[in-house]
Amino acid sequence: MRLDVVARPDYFSLIVGKSKFLFLGHEHMSEKVSHGDAAKASPEGDVRPKASTSPPQPRIVLSLRHSLLALVLLAVLPALALILHTAAVQRRLASQTVQHDALRLARVSAAQQERLVEGAHQLLVALAQVPVLRGQDPAAANALLARLLTKYSGYANIGIIDMDGSVFASGLPVSPQVNLKDRLYFRRAVETGDFAMGEYQIGRITHVSSVNFGYPLVDNAGRITRVAFAALDLAWLSQLGAKAELPEGGTLTVVDAYGTVLAGWPDPEAWRGRSIANDPVTKVMLKKRDGTEEVVGSDGISRLVAFVPIEGAPGAGLVSVSIAIPKHIALAEPNRMLRRNLAWLALVAALALGATWIGGDFFILRRARALVRAAQQLEAGDLTARTGLTYGREELGRLAHAFDRMANSLQLRSAERDLAEKQLRELNAELEERVASRTAELRAKNEQLEADQDLARKFQLGLLPNRYPEFPPNVADGQRKLRFCHRYEPSGAVGGDYFTVLPLSPTRAGIFVCDVMGHGVRAALVTAIIRGLVEELAPVANDPGRFLSEINTSLAHVLRDSGTTMFASALYAIVDTEPGSLQCSSAGHPKPLLLRRATGSVETVPFPPQAVGPALGLFGDETFASIGAELMPDDIVVIYTDGISEAAAPEGEPFGEERLCATFERNLKQPLDELLMQAMEDARKFTASATFEDDVCLVGVELTTS
Questions:
Q1: Rounded Cα gap, residues 501 and 466, in angstroms
Q2: Per-residue confidence (pLDDT) for residue 552, from 0 to 100
Q3: CA 393 – CA 632 distance, rounded (Å)
Q4: Helices and strands (H, E) in the chain, number of each type
Q5: For residue 625, what are the CA distances in angstroms to 23, 144, 165?
Q6: For residues 562 and 514, what is the distance between their CA atoms, to the nearest angstrom?
Q7: Beta carbons of 664 and 440 less than 8 angstroms apart
Q8: pLDDT for 43-97, tens place per residue?
Q9: How many Cα atoms sit within 13 Å of 426 on the Cβ side?
Q10: Cβ contacts of residue 285 below 8 Å, gap of 6+?
């Protein structure tokens, strides 16, 4: 361990670096400074290490000049916001004015259209009363209608239709084959008995685009005998658009209920008779009927639209007049004013920025640079550096005064620091010597501890059986009635699990398994005590309950005398080959498992609750009971400690008795040693770890068919 003292120039690096960023805010203001002269050798020859002089780099830093310019721009922002707000208000007012004017023009145009319809109505009512048209002289009627047609130039034709649809009289010559019974205005006049209006059509007599009106002629009995009609020439109707005095770019359109253009301006010939039912403007107009709307047309141009309905003949359907003005034309004047105001604001801002650039350099930046130069000299190790500025009561003057006082203070403390560095070096050397000595002692003790643990591990493994008794003794391997196998894995160098096999008679074997609380050296010592007690009390091992009771009494006495609070779960089982039987006694230990190869089942030895005693060492006067079970050839008894059943997955779920039984059941046909090995591997995979957190011990006894 070493305590290093920084060299003199680095003593001020943080203060100086912050000062530079305060003055100009440059991200890379400092250059790398050589410390060849600053890192002086001490009288003992120790060279002080160099420390980094680069100040922390800020994320977003503005220079002082840029900060002044930013303030000017911030001052301009309210004026910009006011201009934009005013422009928005002007655009809204202009839009409302244009829509209001367009609606007024549309209503004027609609009124003119309504006068045309009313004129046609009055004309037809008058014709219905003329005797010639009610009589039977077609020639006289034709002459009369021809004279009327010359006086009413807005009509393409005027005529009389008989009830069968044939033309009785017409202002224009007509072919006998012409029949008008299917025309909408004829059918409406007959059905309603009143003035009726048709739809857009190309006349069969006039061969021009027109809208026809009809009116019934009735006799004295009130029966309809004929229908008078007048065909309004849409070419003349379109001339009304020119009289509407539309603004530049504006359009006037007359549309019937089917979305067919009856008249349009400008360019009426191009629009007359055209269907615009799918145009967004037409959809809005037919839906709302009367009002204003801003609509984006099928050509992608936004328009301000005003529309009103025309009162026509009953049953004629909706006929509307609309006036549309492109929004960019309607808002041309507000936009021009906005551009002019923005240009003036930009000019004023440019002049203010220029004045700030020049004035800021003279009044502020010149003094700030002097502060930066002094800070750089101080960073390089020159403690005599001063700003040279005249002190004043303003901020920069007070800052220069504070900086020079700081430099004086640092220069005075430099000698004190040098002395402190020398003392620290001496303490550092002494501390290193002590640390080295202590490290050597700890290393030696650690080596001794590792050797002791290795010896303890070998000693504990020596306590376990290195070979199993033979049942019956002195026979060939193929004639033995019992086969043994175990798997033992301590969680550390030593563990707290222990087992042994006792030969009780040529046909009876005692299997003792225990699990001492905890693991490590303390648990290993208790297992050694239990092993001694097992050997000492072997004469009573033929009775499982008595055997555990005697061990418990002796162990409780030993632990109580030593002042140690320890205990151990244990299970003692006796397997008798003639006849096949199992006797067990439990001291708080997991129940043994019976693996029956003949039936392919795995089950636990049934222990009534009252037959399971407490762990060994807790109560000295406890009495343990025994239970029995029948064994069949090829049956296997597995006794285990809870280190395998309580092995936990990463999320904390234990392996459990059910998974252990399932492992044995899947591999029941395997040899005994493979069965135990597979159980260990399945538990290890479940924990996702190479080692177990607790000691694990599995002991298996197989009753063979030999």
A1: 11
A2: 94
A3: 107
A4: 18, 21
A5: 90, 139, 123
A6: 20
A7: no
A8: 444 444 444 455 555 566 667 778 878 888 888 889 889 989 888 888 788 777 7
A9: 6
A10: 255, 305, 307, 320, 322
- Distance between CA atoms of residues 37 and 412, nearest Å: 20
How is 506-534 classified by DSSP, letter by letter? SSEEEEEEEEESS-SHHHHHHHHHHHHHH
Q: Which two tokens stand for residue 698?
A: 């599995």
What single-letter amino acid sits at 120? Answer: A
Two tokens at 164?
């069968």
**Residue entry with tokens 């296997």:** 636
Q: How far apart are CA 527 and CA 569, in angstroms?
A: 11
How high is the pLDDT of residue 59? Answer: 61
Alpha-carbon torsion 59, 65, 67, 69, what sign? negative
DSSP 246: P
Digit-coded pLDDT (tens) for 536-576: 999 999 999 999 999 999 999 988 877 777 899 999 999 99
Q: From 260, 235, 166, select the one nearest 204 (Cα to Cα).
A: 166
The DSSP secondary structure of 79-133, one letter per residue, reads HHHHHHHHHHHHHHHHHHHHHHHHHHHHHHHHHHHHHHHHHHHHHHHHHTT-HHH
Determine the 3-state secondary structure of 176 from DSSP: coil
Strand, coil or helix: 609: helix
pLDDT value of residue 305: 83
Separation between Cα atoms, residue 133 and residue 201, nearest integer Å: 25
Question: Distance between CA atoms of 665 and 623, rounded to whole angstroms?
Answer: 35
* Percent of residues in the chain assigned helix, strand, coil, to nearest 5: 45, 20, 35
Compute the distance between CA of residue 140 and CA of residue 132 in angstroms, rounded to an integer.
7
Token pair in block for residue 240:
């009304």
pLDDT at 642: 92
**Using an 8 Å Cβ cutoff, are 471 and 504 in contact?**
no
Beta-sheet strand order (sheet of 167-170): 167-170, 155-162, 224-233, 209-218, 196-202
DSSP SS3 for 416: helix
Would you give the DSSP letter of residue 9? Answer: G
Tokens at residue 462, please? 């020596």
Contact 526, 599 (CB under 8 A): no
CA distance 636 to 483: 9
- φ, ψ of residue 248 to 5 degrees: the values are -60, 135
Cis peptide leading into residue 49 (ω within 30°): no
Structure tokens at 452: 């002791």
Residue bearing tokens 């003094």: 367
